[in-house]
Write a structure and sequence with these properties.
- The strands form five sheets. The chain has a seven-stranded mixed beta sheet, with helices on both faces. It has a four-stranded antiparallel beta sheet with strand order 13-14-17-16, with helices on one face. A two-stranded antiparallel ribbon has the order 1-2.
- 39% of the residues lie in helices and 16% in strands.
- Helix 3 packs across helix 10 and helix 11 packs parallel to helix 14.
- The protein contains 14 helices and 17 strands.
- Strand 7, helix 7 and strand 8 form a beta-alpha-beta unit.
- The protein has two domains: 146 residues, Aspartate Aminotransferase, domain 1, CATH 3.90.1150; 255 residues, 3-Layer(aba) Sandwich (Aspartate Aminotransferase, domain 2), CATH 3.40.640.10.
- The chain has 420 residues and is of the alpha/beta class.
C-alpha cells in the first residue's frame, strides 16, 4: 500500500532528521533525574508519549466520555465514531484487507493469549505441535505451554546461533504434518534481531501451516504490511508505539478469525442471548467482550497519526544510524561483550561488562540520568542460551540522539572505574 502521509522532513536522510523539533513533542524528555538530564534508553520496555496523544485522552474524558456502540445519545455517537475511526486507521496502518480483521486487545500478550486459547479450543488435539523460536518473549512462550498442556500438544523450538539468529535449516526440519501453527517474533526485544519473516512465513505456508507474528518491537521502527508479509495473525502494543498503555491490536485474516471460537463471553460480543443458547456477534466484535478501553484506543489512533506524520522512511534511516553509532562506541569499551550480533537488527543493543553485574550497571547509570533496562528482559531462555544471568539493554527511539549515546558511554566508563 502506498503511504500517502507526507513525511515530517522533505529529505528522509538521517542527516536531515530534525530530532530537536521532535523532542519538543515529548515533555518528559525535558526533565532531570538525580540532577542530570534524563537520557531515556528503555524504549523497548515502553516508549514515551507525545503531547498530542495526552491531549486526545484529556479531550475524550472532558468532552465526550461515553460508552460505545450501545447509546443513541450524542456523546455515545461521538465516542463510537472516534473508537471505530481508530480501527480504520489501524487497518490502513497495517494494510489489512478489512477493518473486520482488526481486534482491540489489552496488548501483545493479550493478543497472543487470545489466539492460543481460541486456536487451542477450536483446532488443537493431542499430538499436534506448535513451533516457536528460542528468542521469544515469555508472552510468546507461556500461553503456548499452557495450551499444549491442556490439549496434549507439543511445543517445538527453533534454535538460534551465536549471533542471535534463527537457524533456518533447523526450522525447516521442525515442520511436519503435526505442525498446526508457527508463532514467531518479528524483532527480538532482548537481542535486536530482525527475523526474515517473509521466508519464515512462506516456508510455513508451503506446509499448510499458519503463522502468528509478535510485532511489538517491530512496529515502532518500521512500516508493517500484513498483506505483503502474508502472515495469518499479527499482534502489537500501543505503548511500544508512542501510545497509551493497556491497549493493543490483533490482526487476523478474516477466514481464520471466522473459524476460531470467541475468547471471552459478555456484552458486545453477542447478537442474541437466551438461557438456552447464545448467537455470537460478527467480526470484529466477536472477540471484544465487554466495555473496551475506549480512551486509549482513541489515543492509539492519534499516536499512529503522529508516527505517520514523522514518516517511517525518516525514522528507519535515523534509527539505523543511531544503532550503528551505538555499536561503534560500545565496541570501544574493553571488557564489553555484545549479546546478539545479528546482521539485521533494530531498536536494541544488549551487552555484558566483564566482572560487573548488569543490575549494578543499571543502578550506577541511573545516578547519571541514563535509563536502561537490566535483567533477563522476559527472555530467560535467551539468557540460558548465551550463559549469562542478565544483560544491560539500551533501546532507542527516533527522539534519541548521538549525544545521549555519548553520555551512555561516559557513564559506562564511570561504572568500570568503580569496579576496577
Amino acid at each position: 500500500m502506498t503511504n500517502t502521509t507526507k513525511d515530517f522532513t522533505a529529505d528522509t536522510r538521517a542527516s536531515h532528521f530534525d530530532v530537536e523539533k521532535i523532542r519538543k513533542d515529548f515533555p518528559i524528555l525535558q526533565q532531570e533525574v538525580h540532577g542530570k538530564p534524563l537520557i531515556y534508553l528503555d524504549n523497548a520496555a515502553t516508549s514515551q508519549t507525545p503531547t498530542v496523544v495526552v491531549d486526545a485522552l484529556r479531550k475524550y474524558y472532558f468532552e465526550y466520555n461515553s460508552n460505545v456502540h450501545r447509546g443513541v445519545h450524542r456523546l455515545s455517537q461521538i465516542a463510537t465514531d472516534a473508537y471505530e475511526g481508530t480501527r480504520k486507521k489501524i487497518q490502513h496502518f497495517l494494510n489489512a484487507k478489512s477493518n473486520e480483521e482488526i481486534i482491540f486487545t489489552k496488548g501483545t500478550t493479550d493478543g497472543i493469549n487470545l489466539i492460543a486459547a481460541s486456536f487451542g479450543r477450536g483446532l488443537i488435539k493431542q499430538g499436534d505441535e506448535i513451533v516457536i523460536s528460542a528468542m521469544e518473549h515469555h508472552s510468546n512462550i507461556v500461553p503456548w505451554q499452557m495450551m499444549c498442556e491442556e490439549r496434549g500438544a507439543k511445543l517445538r523450538i527453533i534454535p538460534i546461533n551465536d549471533n542471535g539468529e534463527i537457524i533456518f535449516e533447523a526450522y525447516e526440519g521442525l515442520l511436519n504434518e503435526r505442525t498446526k501453527l508457527v508463532s514467531i517474533v518479528h524483532t527480538s526485544n532482548s537481542l535486536g534481531t530482525v527475523n526474515p519473516l517473509r521466508e519464515i512465513i512462506d516456508l510455513a505456508h508451503s506446509k499448510g501451516v499458519p503463522v502468528l507474528v509478535d510485532g511489538a518491537q517491530a512496529v515502532p521502527h518500521t512500516h508493517v504490511d500484513v498483506q505483503a508479509l502474508d502472515c495469518d495473525f499479527f499482534v502489537f502494543s500501543s505503548h511500544k508505539v508512542f501510545g497509551p498503555t493497556g491497549i493493543g491490536v490483533l490482526y487476523g485474516k478474516k477466514e481464520w478469525l471466522q473459524k476460531l471460537p470467541p475468547y471471552q463471553g459478555g456484552g458486545d460480543m453477542i447478537l442474541n442471548v437466551t438461557f438456552e443458547s447464545t448467537k455470537f456477534n460478527d467480526l470484529p466484535y466477536k472477540f471484544e467482550a465487554g466495555t473496551p478501553n475506549i480512551a486509549d484506543v482513541i489515543g492509539l489512533g492519534v499516536a499512529i497519526d503522529y508516527i505517520q506524520k514523522v514518516g517511517y522512511s525518516a525514522i528507519s534511516a535515523y534509527e539505523n544510524e543511531l544503532i550503528r553509532y551505538a555499536v561503534q562506541r560500545l565496541s570501544e569499551i574493553e571488557g564489553l561483550r555484545f549479546i546478539g550480533q545479528a546482521k539485521k537488527r533494530a531498536g536494541a543493543v544488549s551487552f555484558v561488562l566483564e566482572n560487573v553485574h548488569p543490575h549494578d550497571i543499571g543502578t550506577i547509570l541511573d545516578r547519571e540520568g541514563v535509563a536502561v533496562r537490566t535483567g533477563h528482559h522476559c527472555t530467560q531462555p535467551v539468557m540460558q542460551r548465551f550463559k549469562v544471568p542478565a544483560t544491560t539493554r539500551a533501546s532507542f527511539a527516533f527522539y534519541n540522539t548521538k549525544e545521549e549515546i555519548d553520555a551512555l558511554i561516559k557513564a559506562l566508563y564511570k561504572v568500570i572505574e568503580m569496579f576496577s
